[in-house]
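> example.struct
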């Protein structure tokens, strides 16, 4: 019983140290594409912890730990800074960041986001904040107030991994967001009639409420074509691009510009 406790304490110590030294955290960016275009329309910023001995520690391991030990706001601020710094260098493309329940429920969160955008002279309309389905319907007063303040400033909100929570369609329809992101598990099952019908229902529900849709985990041409035919707005996944560095983003966009100018 002592061994898991020692392992956790060591991980806590290493996570704090990584944040203090700022040498182990990286931000990767996964391009998002229009369903009917080969040019990226936005990016999703993804935090990465490259531990010196463990290698890459998955976000679903270190993010809950960061919430528990009170450093999630610092990590979120670091990702937002990096994302805004990149946005300042690549006009014409939008950015999505992920916000945890603890982070977005903090009273100072809207000010922190708006201050960072102002520092880098970024239009708030270029930023989208992704939240979980459970958080979107939680009814937490501070969270709801923060979302309202940020949306009033022009920032958009999306429900990440839609369809994996415990809410019903009717409950989600009452939530004010701008986009739903269809979870990879549904994309994987598009070849099955039941899963395809669910994806179609999600897209139709979103459209009826003025929301956009993004499908995650697109890995085959067949999946992309199916999503396009069902009316999905955007797609992301390994078929188009794996998460890449900020320099990789700039190279990708520059290559797209060259192809556009050459007419290819």
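> example.seq
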């Amino acid at each position: 019983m002592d061994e898991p406790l020692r392992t956790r304490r060591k991980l806590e110590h290493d996570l704090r140290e990584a944040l203090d030294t700022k040498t182990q955290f990286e931000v990767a960016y996964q391009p998002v594409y229009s369903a009917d275009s080969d040019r990226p329309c936005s990016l999703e910023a993804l935090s990465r912890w490259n531990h010196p001995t463990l290698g890459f520690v998955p976000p679903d391991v270190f993010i809950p730990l960061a919430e528990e030990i009170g450093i999630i706001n610092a990590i979120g601020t670091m990702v937002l800074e990096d994302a805004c710094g990149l946005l300042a260098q690549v006009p014409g493309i939008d950015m999505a960041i992920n916000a945890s329940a603890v982070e977005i429920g903090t009273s100072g969160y809207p000010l922190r986001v708006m201050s960072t955008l102002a520092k880098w002279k970024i239009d708030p309309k270029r930023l989208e904040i992704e939240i979980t389905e459970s958080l979107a319907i939680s009814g937490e007063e501070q969270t709801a107030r923060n979302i309202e303040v940020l949306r009033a400033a022009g920032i958009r909100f999306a429900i990440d991994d839609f369809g994996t929570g415990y809410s019903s369609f009717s409950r989600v329809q009452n939530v004010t967001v701008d986009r739903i992101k269809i979870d990879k598990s549904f994309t994987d099952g598009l070849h099955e009639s039941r899963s395809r019908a669910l994806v179609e229902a999600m897209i139709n529900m979103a459209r009826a409420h003025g929301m956009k849709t993004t499908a995650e985990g697109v890995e085959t041409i067949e999946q992309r074509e199916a999503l396009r035919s069902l009316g999905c707005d955007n797609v992301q996944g390994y078929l188009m691009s794996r998460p890449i560095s900020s320099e990789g983003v700039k190279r990708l966009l520059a290559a797209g510009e060259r192809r556009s100018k050459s007419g290819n």
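> remarks
The beta strands are 25-34, 40-51, 55-57, 94-98, 127-132, 156-162, 179-182, 212-215, 234-235.
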